[in-house]
UniProtKB/TrEMBL annotation:
Protein name: N-alpha-acetyltransferase 40
Cellular compartments annotated: Cytoplasm; Nucleus
Entry EC no(s): 2.3.1.257
Ranges where the N-acetyltransferase domain occurs: 70-213
Matches recorded under PROSITE patterns: GNAT
Highest rank taxon of the organism: Eukaryota
Gene (UniProt): AUGUSTUS-3.0.2_15921
Any one of the GO CC terms: cytoplasm
Keywords, comma-separated and alphabetical: Acyltransferase, Cytoplasm, Lipoprotein, Myristate, Nucleus, Transferase
Native organism taxonomy: Eukaryota, Metazoa, Ecdysozoa, Arthropoda, Hexapoda
Organism of origin: Tribolium castaneum
Length: 251
């Protein structure tokens, strides 16, 4: 008897192998990006911002290189800007969980400081796999209230896009609470509802949506999605800003 291998199952096997191959390639792209020493290096012009009365210097750092005062400012600014919005939806706010997420060893930071050394704003981002593809995930973009609406946020998103696409990420992606009127900011920068954004049903609604901007240079090649679970879908809610990161090969 033995095992009969029909043409159909062979085809399936080949397809699966091809998809696994793509995942491995994507993971290699992510690993390579995570080994960078200074993602801003190719874009020296973007190290300075001077507009609307703000003079800022920008730099990137791995979380492991942040000093204590930077870490506590990052946490405090996030809390000041976001706590109420989290509390006004099903996520709720939890100091420890947010601290853990911000200080996860995979975290990268883009930081803007005034020329006098004052902290102005930051983005917490990661090069990561998301639903089977390589992405730059923008976990946070937070500016001090006094300097909002002066163009620095837009400038920082441009930097994230440059870094993402230079390093072959397929998209820049982020999670935003629906109760956050700053989704208008991301829409104004041409971020669109991502295909992985969860869809509300009668009895299950999601307080957040996922927006993204696709790397047009890579958009024509096919993407792999062997894992159809949407971020946050597993338990209907998530405390972490980016929903669930589900490692494709560990599922
Ligand atoms: C993934 C996440 O981190 S989600 C959480 C986002 N962060 C927050 O909600 C924290 C509080 N807010 C902030 O830190 C900042 O305001 C940010 C990061 C949201 C935006 O950065 P800013 O520097 O304030 O925005 P910027 O001045 O670059 O705005 C660019 C354009 O976006 C649009 N925009 C920005 N904010 C708004 C708003 N509140 N309503 C409508 N449109 C807006 C406008 O078109 C604006 O251009 P304009 O000012 O010339 O009209």
């Amino acid at each position: 008897m033995g095992r009969k291998s029909s043409a159909k199952s062979k085809e399936k096997r080949l397809k699966r192998k091809e998809e696994q191959q793509k995942i491995l390639q994507a993971m290699a792209v992510v690993d390579k990006a995570n080994k960078l020493t200074d993602p801003l290096e190719p874009f020296p012009v973007f190290r300075k911002f001077n507009k609307n009365g703000i003079e800022a210097e920008l730099f990137t750092q791995r979380v492991t290189d942040l000093d204590e005062s930077t870490k506590s400012w990052i946490f405090n600014l996030t809390k000041r800007n976001m706590q109420l919005k989290y509390e006004q939806c099903s996520w709720g706010w939890n100091d420890n969980k947010k601290m853990e997420e911000l200080m996860d060893e995979a975290a990268w930071y883009l930081i803007a400081k005034g020329v006098d050394g004052t902290f102005l704003g930051f983005s917490h981002f990661r090069f990561d796999m998301d639903e089977g593809i390589e992405v730059l995930y923008c976990y946070e973009l937070q500016l001090e209230p006094a300097i909002q609406r002066k163009g620095l946020g837009k400038f920082m998103m441009q930097i994230l896009e440059l870094i993402a696409f230079k390093n072959n990420m397929r998209k820049v992606i982020l999670t935003i609470l629906k109760n956050n009127h700053y989704s208008k900011f991301f829409r104004a920068l041409n971020y669109e509802l991502d295909e992985t954004s969860p869809i509300d049903y009668q009895d299950e609604t999601f307080p957040y949506e996922i927006l993204s901007k696709v790397n047009k240079r890579l958009a024509s090649s096919t993407t792999t999605n062997i894992n159809n679970k949407k971020p946050g879908q597993a338990n209907g809610h998530s405390h972490c800003c980016s929903g669930h990161h589900h490692h494709p090969l560990m599922s």
